Amino acid sequence: MRRLAGVEDEEKWLAEGIAGIQHNAFFMHRALDANNLREVLKYSALMLSELRTSKLSPQKYYDLYMRAFDELRQLEVFFKDESRHGLPVVDLYELVQHAGNILPRMYLLCTVGSVYIKSKQAPSKDVLKDLVEMCRGVQHPIRGLFLRSYLAQVSRDKLPEIGSEYEGDANTVMDAVEFVLQNFTEMNKLWVRIQHQGPGTVREKQEKERNELRDLVGKNLHVLGQIEGVDLEMYKETVLPRVLEQVVNCKDELAQYYLMECIIQVFPDEYHLQTLETLLAACTQLMVGTLTIEIFLFPNLQCNCMLRVLMLPLSLEGGLSDLSPTVDTKIVLTQLMDRLSNYAASSPDVLHEFLQVEAFAKLSNAIGKVIDTQIEMPIVGAMTLFVSLLTFTLRVHPDRLDYVDQILGACVVKLSSVPKLEDARAMKQVVALLSAPLEKYNDIVTALTLSNYPRVMDHLDDGTNKVMAMLIIQSIMKNNSCISTADKVEVLFELIKGLIKDLDGTDTEELDEEDFQEEQNSVARLIHMLDNEEPEEMLKIICVVRKHLMTGGTRRLPFTVPPLVFSALRLVRQLDSQGGDITGEEVSATPRKIFQILNQTIEVLSSVPCPELALRLYLQCAEAASDCDLEPAAYEFFTQAFILYEEEIADSKAQVTAIHLIIGTLQRINVFGVENRDTLTHKATGYSARLLKKPDQCRAVYACSHLFWVDDIDGIKDGERALLCLRRALRIANAAQQMSNATRGSSGPVTLFVEILNKYIYFYEKGNPHITPSDIQSLIELINTEMQSDDNGNRRTHSDPFFTSTLRYIRFQKQKGGLIGDKYDLIKL
């Protein structure tokens, strides 16, 4: 209620002040119309007396000030026209100094002083010096700040800078700089003094008011940055030392941080670079500690667009609730490095300037001092500084990896002082620190050469470690980076260990299944990016990867083992194409050794259990061993596949898929001798006939016919055994029809018969002497009989499309003529 009453009182006082200004402005305007100088001065002084109030907050005082400012614009127009008031400007300058109160007197003096300078009847430097000195008569902080802000505004276009009409023998750029610096110094003193007014109980209110007024002070620095003729030498010798003297000596945290921010933002980047040592020295002299109030910062403040307080209303309606978190020295250093980084990125021509001034060494030393002296600095603050320094280094010295590693090493030292990194903001900064080299170099291989890179990652929690590991893999995939040495693979898998094994205290069962699959698929894709043309080194890589993957647990192996197996098989085929084994000092890169490793690897996978996947991989290895003419290895892989089929695969659908995979692989392999092949084919046909469902049995058995007739030059061609498989399949199909009739009361579809018919036609075309036209014709008649009626004598009206297409094919072959036509003419439809 007390605060609400205070707001209502302020509104009342503001309304009274505005009413007073409007009342006296009315009579002033009437006097202006009558060209009555005496009345004009009288009522303008009374109007300006309303600004003497001490009851208003800075925001409300600003509203009152703007009312008076608008009237002073019209008063200045009157003073410029000597024909209206009939008094020389020199005499007018003397006359307004007789106003009764200091505040109206100074506003009138500044207004007439602006006209006096414009008339050029006196050197502008003398008038400006007189005005800035006489403004010392107003020592009330708020009134004094607005008065000096008015002086800065009316004199801005009358400074004797280069190219200005007021520049001359008696007026130099140095005079303009001196005026602005003196005005800035006095305004800063008034601004800092606010905190010492009133009891300590109103400290929060005072700091809020100071925060509302700060842009009045900063506007002077903005003017300094815009003065034409302030070159590097003048900035280095005069401007910067004078400004920094005020910043350091004011011993006020709010003033120091805000003014340092202004310095960084309003002056050119090349000036900062050439005065870097001076700026950094000033940063280390700032008051150590954290502000006790919340300070509103302009993080996006640009040097060419600072808020012009006197032209736009202050946006302060939210009070302290709109203010940002507390700041410390790291804000200043971060902004400085960001500005310098952007300057370096703007043009390659400026990079040599950074080398000349040894910017990295100076920034690194300054950051080290700040972190060491500010013992209570939060870890997120130190990480923010390291990120900014690393960004600066990557832009200015992209070829200096030792600088990057040095920064990461300093980060490790700082993180080592913390038992466990739990701050989410600090984690985010560490991720940014680790991501910067990846984004800059677009090559993980470069990051792998940084010895401190994995040491920084060790300080991340498990969740963040995984996020960083995913970023590393995404960078590799995006840039198509190839990791080509076992040592680099070792380092890489240490970096992504959060994805390939359970870290301490991590339970994979708690992970989201979709996220887990995405992580493991990323690891699988990564394995395919590991390659080396030297077989010996590639085998080392495979062994390193296998060592890490075997620690992954039962949930990860089904995702990560297959790409490892195919990577090893690619190496096997590479060795086979080179026509021999490659033997090194430590590792022998031979197909036999690789197959041994693969056998051990897949055996682990089969115990997960994941027998279907293991069986597929065994068959892939068997085919690769066949290509290398390694019959024992191929036979061993088939043996393991059959063992899995017998002992681990119980689901009927999985058995059907598995037996067809075995048959298809065995058909393509031609390395086996007669004995081994007979053993394997016997096993395959036996398992085919023992499938649960008759249709599955039938299809698997007629598929086995291809094991005895391979349409290759060197392929086996045992037509009799192929025919036996087909006849056996036909018996099974007939049994299936009978079972269908017994259970459903009608025969089932003739699809199985038609499929067997197509196998007969296939082998007949391929020249199997045991397949005769009469066999095909008999089967066609059987199908026709089955289609014409069921066992109850009911005639079927529909036909089988597959059978119709088969008959159409036979007719087509008949019409070809020649040997093919003669062959098919023997079949009577």
Would you summarize the structure shown here?
This protein is mainly α. Helices cover 69% and strands 0% of the residues. Strands 1-2 form a two-stranded antiparallel ribbon.
What does this structure look like?
- There is one protein chain.
- By secondary structure, the chain is an all-alpha fold.
- It is built from 39 helices and 2 strands.
- A two-stranded antiparallel ribbon has the order 1-2.
- A hairpin with a 4-residue loop joins strand 1 (582-583) and strand 2.
- Helix 31 packs antiparallel against helix 32.
- It is found in: Membrane.
- Belongs to the VPS35 family.
- Pfam families: Vps35 (PF03635).
List the helices and strands and how they pair.
Elements: H1 2-33, H2 37-48, H3 58-80, H4 82-85, H5 89-95, H6 102-119, H7 124-134, H8 141-155, H9 173-193, H10 203-226, H11 232-249, H12 253-266, H13 269-274, H14 276-285, H15 329-346, H16 351-357, H17 359-373, H18 379-396, H19 401-416, H20 424-441, H21 444-448, H22 453-457, H23 462-479, H24 486-495, H25 497-500, H26 513-527, H27 535-549, H28 557-578, E1 582-583, E2 588-589, H29 591-606, H30 611-627, H31 631-647, H32 652-668, H33 674-689, H34 694-704, H35 719-744, H36 751-765, H37 773-788, H38 801-816, H39 818-825
Antiparallel strand pairs: 1-2
InterPro entries: Vps35, Vps35_C
Membrane topology: Peripheral membrane protein
Subcellular location: Membrane
